């Protein structure tokens, strides 16, 4: 069974009454419930746990890591970010949700600022499927609508996705690349836009379907683990003098 670890800051749910009322079990609780319903083995880790809950042992047992962060990106320890990056490059999947676009791990893997436009107005978002052949689009039809969400708008400062699966249109007129696939090393990465903390987005069946589809897709490492380091020749070498500077 695919093992998914849900990572969440879990700060605003405890300090902001509106967020706590929307997600009484935390954003991680809502995401975890959707993935359990889809048949995944799910664990949870949060910012204020030792090592942010992302120990070597936890990551070694994780096939896919989801990441939601917003208000405390700078508090994530650099050594934990490096640990997560190594696992992604070695084949662990990563699903970055909503404001996780500014997380240390996503910015490191993208190599860009990951900046964008935004507006909090509780407006309608329509998510369109633009790559229906991709596994993440399975069961979504043409797309779906979320009645109230935060707006994200272009330009989104990320590398061009390897595959763009979803785009969003907002009531105020903006559009956004809201479902972006990347490959880094042996790992698969999916950025999924919806999920502002004051809206019950992670209870939406369409959103839950996307995250479950993404977890299945991201759980498959890209190819065999390569061998590196000193290597003996495949063919006999002729004896010759080797300059020390070669």
Question: Main β-sheet, in a few words?
Answer: 9 strands, mixed
Radius of gyration: 20 Å
* Shape call: globular
Low-confidence stretches: none
Strand content: 25-35%
**How many beta strands in the DSSP annotation?**
9
- State the CATH superfamily name of the domain at 3-112 and 178-218: Class I glutamine amidotransferase (GATase) domain
Summary tags:
nine-stranded mixed sheet, 28% strand, 246 residues
Question: How would you sum up this structure, described in words?
Answer:
Helix 5 (78-89) crosses helix 6. Helices cover 24% and strands 28% of the residues. The chain has a nine-stranded mixed β-sheet. It is an alpha/beta fold. A hairpin with a 4-residue loop joins strand 7 (163-170) and strand 8 (175-184). It is globular, with a radius of gyration of 20 Å. The protein has a domain at 3-112 and 178-218: Class I glutamine amidotransferase (GATase) domain (Rossmann fold).
In short:
This protein is an alpha/beta fold and about 250 residues long. Helix content is about 25%, strand content about 30%. It has helices at about 10-15, 15-20, 25-35, 55-60, 80-90, 105-110, 205-220; strands spanning about 5-10, 40-45, 65-70, 95, 115-130, 145-155, 165-170, 175-185, 185-190.
């Amino acid at each position: 069974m695919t093992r998914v670890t849900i990572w969440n800051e879990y700060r605003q749910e405890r300090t902001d009454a509106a967020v706590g009322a929307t997600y009484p079990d935390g954003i991680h609780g809502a995401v975890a419930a959707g993935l359990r319903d889809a048949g995944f083995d799910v664990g949870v880790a949060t910012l204020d746990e030792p090592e942010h809950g992302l120990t070597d042992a936890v990551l070694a047992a994780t096939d896919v890591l989801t990441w939601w962060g917003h208000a405390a990106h700078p508090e994530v320890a650099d050594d934990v970010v490096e640990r997560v990056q190594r696992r992604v490059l070695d084949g662990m999947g990563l699903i970055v949700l909503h404001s996780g676009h500014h997380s240390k791990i996503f910015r490191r893997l993208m190599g860009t600022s990951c900046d964008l436009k935004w507006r909090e107005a509780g407006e309608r978002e329509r998510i369109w499927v633009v790559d229906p052949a991709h596994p993440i689009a399975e069961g979504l039809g043409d797309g779906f609508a979320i009645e109230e969400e935060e707006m994200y708008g272009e330009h989104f400062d990320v590398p061009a996705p390897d595959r763009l699966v979803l785009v969003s249109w907002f009531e105020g007129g903006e559009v956004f690349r809201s479902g972006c696939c990347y490959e880094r090393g042996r790992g698969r990465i999916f950025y999924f836009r919806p999920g502002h903390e004051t809206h019950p987005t992670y209870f939406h069946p369409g959103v839950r379907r996307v995250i479950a589809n993404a977890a299945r897709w991201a759980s498959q490492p890209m190819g065999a683990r390569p061998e590196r380091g000193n290597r003996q020749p495949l063919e006999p070498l002729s004896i010759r003098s080797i300059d020390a500077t070669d």
